[in-house]
Amino acid sequence: MPLHNREFMSGTRGTMAVDWEQRIDVKRMREERKERALERMRDAGLGSMLLINDPNIRYVTGLAMTGGSGADHYSLLMEDGNVVHWDTADHASNQRYNCPWLNDIRYACPGLGNVPRASGRDSARSFLLDKMAGTVVDALEEYGLTSEPMGIDTGHDGLLDAFESQGVDVRPGECVSVMEDARKNKTEDEIECLRQVAAICEAGFQAIAENAKPGARESEVWGDAVREIWRHGAMAQGGYITSGPNTWPKHQANTTDRMIRPGDLVYADFYNIGYLGYRSCYYRTFSMGEPTREQKDAYETARDNLYDVLEAIEPGKTTDEIAMAFPDMEGEHADWYGADEHWQMTTNHWAHGLGLQLYEVPLIWRGLSPDHPIEIEEGMTMAVETQEPAGRQGVRVEEMVVVRDDGVEVLSQWPVEEITTIDY
Description:
By secondary structure, the protein is of the alpha+beta class. Helix content is 36%, strand content 19%.
């Protein structure tokens, strides 16, 4: 299927708030996300859902959770749309002032994560779990939901036991399915967030093109790129560049202090760059000076493999069908790795969902999809990535896309036809 061409003037706008142009409508995005979760929660027969997973909390509340020390923040979504949110003392105090769309913010008890782990006592851990569960039970009683099933997005045995001992009917499986289903198809505001983060990654690619040169360290060039990313209002919570022999196979330490040399291939992976929480995964390859014929041929193979997959993606198709567009075991260079099956080639050739997490539904991969297919739906967003060796170096290329009714729209725009040459 041909690639989707977006409408005239549809694309990345500025990152600042203005009154003269419609940009990302964050209020609408919060409300639409919450409504999706509510609809699916009600359909699943749940009276409430306790969300502990950071992306799930953000999806429903709009709060920019940063991981922290574990379950020192959690949110309860109820069937009438009310939300109770618990957080650390400082965070909760700030949220009461800065987040007027939430009107019931309380202090959390950290029943999971670093605090109980650091306590050194089983009795302390039991106290924290019971107290955390108790804060939620109190809210359920206040809102009249103690007799209704409560979904929970973690299967932690101790926490489940703490709720069950207080008479709560907890449903972890249903909650995980509800949130997965709510989040897999993106709204137009979510898609624009991903388009925006792709544009910010491209600013990072430009910083690499301007600063990579013989004698510069990988870490220095990556630092220049990260500075540019932060300058545009994104968070750099992942990513790296590698060069020369570090490009094949992928270096275990990612960015190192290796000096870039003439004739090197350099590739940058902007993964987990977040704009309003929405995560990128976006590869491009650079050449220090004119690439060799071998390097050009490798790049052409990787690019063609990627676009073969993009042309196979459309609503209604299943992931087992699409996965066949990825390279077979010979194309995966399985002999080089000493691998016998596709599942051993994790991360080399696949497509994975993008959203408030780096890996969301769907996953398209020869190592899994043939025996466990799912259907592709309009509004799914994903990153599609391929790679290819070039002598003792390698190339990688990746696009960020959204599934439209007539194919995929490519959100990433850094030139892809050939390796970006850096004339130093």
